[in-house]
Amino acid sequence: NNQSTKMHHANINLFKIIQGDPTMDQTLQPYDIVIIKQNPKWADINSVMVEGNVRFPGIYPIQPGERLTQVLQRAGGLTELAYPEASIFTRKKLIEKEKRENDSLIARMETHLIQTQYNKQTEKESAALNPNTAMIHELITKLKTAKPVGRLAIDLKQIMNDPGGQYDVMLQDGDHLVVPQRTDEVTVMGEVYFPTSHQFISDKNLESYIQASGGYTSNADDDRVYVVRADGRVTSKKQPGKFPMMGWFASNNAITLGPGDTVVVPMNIEKVAPMVLWKDVTQILYNLAVTTSALRSAGAL
Question: pTM of this prediction?
């Protein structure tokens, strides 16, 4: 009937209304909308954990945008026994990401296994498949029970030398830093006859440590040996050059080992099974084992 709708905005003081101030109260009408906004500065308290060789280990509340050096300053800094080069930094969001990736990999492996079992095989192919099938089942089981750690490789020494710089980590809720005591061993794991740790000696090279663990097994891929540094970065004796996602690569025995490093001898996937996923599986398991071992030796597990 030639009528129109009009909209009117009004700010109200809800606190005074609740306190009973009649001059501030409003009479609501049909189609009125009351919007109560959240205080933009209000947020749940976020915190990080600092453990190991700092003067005051514990849980520290953080503000948005706070960096690692600021929390370390509140924690009193490092003790004289600290080994910052081997610090372990883990992040809750990375744990969740690793779990999703592991679950996806397990699903792909199980699909591959089902497809392989239903494919028609010759008698010779079937005989070759049986041991590989058992190994795939074993790897799936290990992946399902593996606990993701969410490690973020950092250079704590460099971070502390340049507070607020580009390497100073901006903290998130649930971050966890472990600063271990200096260690004097090099660990060898994977496809060697006696995976174990050896005393670090500065003039020993990569092959010396591998031979001290009994040498390569028949399933070893000696061309793709890699070293997980104490700080979580990776160096390989294959593919010389710089690879941003994995660290710095060098050739064969040119790799210089340091205290706390772990030498990983991977499985030769071409010998064991014709499966593209195999490399992903073995690398995930080895890297999980390296970090879990490091956390355990640092007393964080």
Answer: 0.66
